[in-house]
Amino acid sequence: MNETSATQANYEVLKSSPPRREEDLSPFAKGNVLLAKTLMYFAAPVTFGLALWRLQGLFYEANGWWIAPAIALGLAAIPFYFDWAMGVVRRRSIRFLVDAIYCEGRVTKTTVNSAGLTMQLEYRDRGGKSYQGKAVALFSASDSTVSEGSTLPVLYSPEKPDQFIAVAPEVGLIPGKGKAIG
Questions:
Q1: Taking a C-beta distance cutoff of 8 angstroms, is the pair 119, 109 a contact?
Q2: pTM of the model
Q3: How far apart are CA 89 and CA 169, in angstroms?
Q4: DSSP state, residue 123
Q5: 85 and 119: one domain?
Q6: What's the structural domain count of the chain?
Q7: Residues 174, 168: contact at Cβ < 8 Å?
Q8: How confident is residue 87, by pLDDT bands cut at 50, 70 and 90?
Q9: What are 163-175's pLDDT values in tens digits?
Q10: Quick one: the chain helix, strand, coil %, rounded to 5?
Q11: Element (H, E) at 26
Q12: 40-54: per-residue pLDDT in tens?
């Protein structure tokens, strides 16, 4: 199965009626995994090494312990915290998609900056009420962006239709919040 047909099969899972199985939704949570692995396997050890090297002149001993390694470990834990936070967002997004209702959303505005991708989109719930929302994909490392005027799969909460997740092909899950416009 090539990548295009695999993607089409994944989108068919989104179009199915809720509740969906979490295992079927896991391919959509792959966004920013490269960033998470970079944080874990590169940034944390480098931060630890640099902090330890920079603090080597710190000879203060608290109860006979050299405290530079403890400070270096604390600084190296920062990338692990960001990795953990991204994992929490991925898990919550998957749980949201299990019961969410599928619709199509039209992208009205996109902005790409150093923090990531910001887009505004419009979608309509099953009752015919229109919503305009804003979604932000932080740390989006994708070269291709979502173009204005394109349509994306949008899944919204049955209890709160103003809460949604847009699914962008190269970016992944993009949570957002909207407001009723009509």
A1: yes
A2: 0.63
A3: 18
A4: E
A5: no
A6: 2
A7: yes
A8: confident
A9: 898 887 777 778 8
A10: 40, 30, 25
A11: none
A12: 677 777 777 777 776
Please state the length of the chain: 182
| Per-residue pLDDT reduced to its tens digit, 12-27 | 777 777 787 877 777 7
Report the distance separating Cα 16 and Cα 153, nearest Å. 12
Domain boundary among 41, 67, 99: 99
User: How far lies 108's CA from each of 18, 50, 78, 115, in Å?
Assistant: 27, 45, 36, 20
Q: What is the CA radius of gyration of the chain?
A: 21
Query: Strand 116-124 to strand 61-62: parallel, antiparallel, or no bridges (unpaired)?
Result: unpaired
| Exposure string over 132-160, b if 16+ CB within 10 A, otherwise e | bbebebebbebeebbeeeeebbbbbeeee
Per the structure, the complete domain to which residue 89 belongs is given by 1-99
pLDDT of residue 35: 62
Q: Same structural domain for residues 57 and 117?
A: no
Domain co-membership, 84 together with 133: no
Question: Is 180's pLDDT higher than 80?
Answer: yes
pLDDT of residue 100: 87
